[in-house]
Write a structure and sequence with these properties.
The chain is of the alpha/beta class and 335 residues long. It has two domains: 176 residues, Peroxisomal Thiolase, Chain A, domain 1 (3-Layer(aba) Sandwich); 154 residues, Thiolase/Chalcone synthase (Peroxisomal Thiolase, Chain A, domain 1, 3-Layer(aba) Sandwich). It has eleven helices and 13 strands. The strands form four sheets. It has a five-stranded mixed β-sheet with strand order 1-7-6-4-5, sandwiched between helices. A four-stranded mixed β-sheet has the order 8-13-12-11, with helices on both faces. The radius of gyration is 19 Å and the shape is globular. The structure holds oxa(dethia)-CoA. Oxa(dethia)-CoA binds next to α2, α6 and α8.
Length: 335
């Protein structure tokens, strides 16, 4: 059995910055409310007419990650792409990456686990490397949220939170079992599926019906979120799944060098930080400037933390996420 290590990281976000004040011109909201409840000051939204999509942003992030890994696209053995905002209903974005990067005809898998998508994707890639089946796996989290948000007053409880962007990691074979991804931990609780959901389009409201009934004011086409229930479950599950990872590796909270939470809400990250008694410099947040980028949030934050020199060789890095499904997970990494 091998381990996998992160050999390259990259991210891409659109240039277009949307501030809270910009949003208050579209809907009944304000900077004070958004900052107080979420910590968000601004986010990136793809500008209308831009070439960017989830797949296109994913490619941009992937090119950087592959280059930093010292590899070429042709060295990649497998692609795992996590998103809740795929370019197409099908096929998934993974095959678009294979094509756009002119890669060999490697397998491409799409992961549909929303905010936990990157942790699920990382775990999947890790298993393929652990068994020896693949040497280098490209993992991407990318989201084009802004195209599917309700930008009227009705959507304000959800829309102000989300941002667009992509992050990518290359996982490569590591012979030393004390290094790299030590373990990953995945969970779900589908009884809460309806609490954070986009209902349409779905196979239940398929094309003929869509054509007849397509109605821009139908709320089913926009995300619904029971924010308080999600918040309450998130803080419990974050703590549980981090503890699960630490105890699996006979580690404790004092061993954590850097915690990178999925950027759901700054208040959630701060709550978890307090539970594990971590200092500010032991937690990396970027929700203030990027909003919640769902499957992209951890790989963007991880790349930025690495670029800023916040991750050193030998550090224990903990990733954790919670979101729609509900799904949640953690990854314990020895850098
Ligand atoms: O990453 C995926 C997982 N998602 C999460 O983890 C999100 C978890 N939940 C949250 O982050 C919070 O629940 C929110 C930030 C989404 C909402 O904060 P909240 O403190 O739970 O607010 P609320 O939904 O209870 O709304 C409080 C008030 C309401 O007004 P009334 O009924 O008290 O008069 C809302 O209508 O705030 C109002 N409101 C807003 N006001 C200004 C809701 N959204 C807005 C807004 N601007 N954008």
């Amino acid at each position: 059995m091998y381990n996998s290590k992160i050999s390259g990281l990259g991210f891409y976000v659109p240039d277009n910055i949307v501030t809270n004040d910009d949003l208050s011109k579209m809907m009944d909201t304000n900077d004070a409310w958004i900052q107080e409840r979420t910590g968000i000051k601004e986010r990136r939204w793809i500008k209308e007419g831009s070439e960017d999509t989830s797949a296109v942003m994913g490619v941009k992030a992937a090119r950087i990650a592959i280059e930093r890994a010292g590899l070429e696209p042709k060295d990649i053995d497998f692609i795992v792409f996590a998103t809740l905002s795929p370019d197409l209903y099908f096929p998934g974005c993974g095959v678009q990456i294979q094509d756009m990067l002119d890669m060999n005809t490697v397998g491409a898998l799409d992961v549909r686990n929303q905010c936990s998508g990157f942790v699920y994707a990382l775990s999947t890639a890790d298993q393929f490397i652990k068994t020896g089946m693949y040497k280098n796996v490209l993992v991407i989290g990318s989201e084009f949220h802004s195209g599917g948000l309700d930008k009227t007053d009705r959507g304000r409880g959800v829309t102000v939170i989300f941002g667009d962007g992509a992050g990518a990691a290359v996982l490569s074979r590591e012979e030393d079992n004390a290094k790299g991804v030590l373990s990953t931990h995945l969970h779900s609780e589908g009884k809460f599926a309806g609490e954070l959901i986009v209902k349409s389009p779905s196979i239940m409201h398929w094309v003929p019906q869509l054509i007849e009934e397509n109605n821009k004011v139908d709320p089913d086409y926009y995300p619904y979120m029971n924010g308080q229930l999600v918040f309450k479950n998130a803080i419990v599950r974050f703590e549980e799944v981090i503890n699960e990872g630490l105890s699996k590796n006979n580690l404790s909270a004092t061993d954590i060098d850097l915690f990178i939470p999925h950027q759901a809400n700054l208040r959630i990250s701060q709550f978890v930080q307090r539970r594990f008694k971590l200092r500010d410099d032991q937690v990396f947040n970027n929700i203030m400037t990027h909003g919640n980028t769902t499957a992209a949030s951890i790989p963007i934050a991880l790349t930025q933390a690495w670029e800023q020199g916040k991750i050193k060789k030998g550090d224990l890095v903990v990733l954790a996420a919670f979101g729609s499904g509900f799904t949640w997970g953690s990854a314990i990494i020895r850098w």
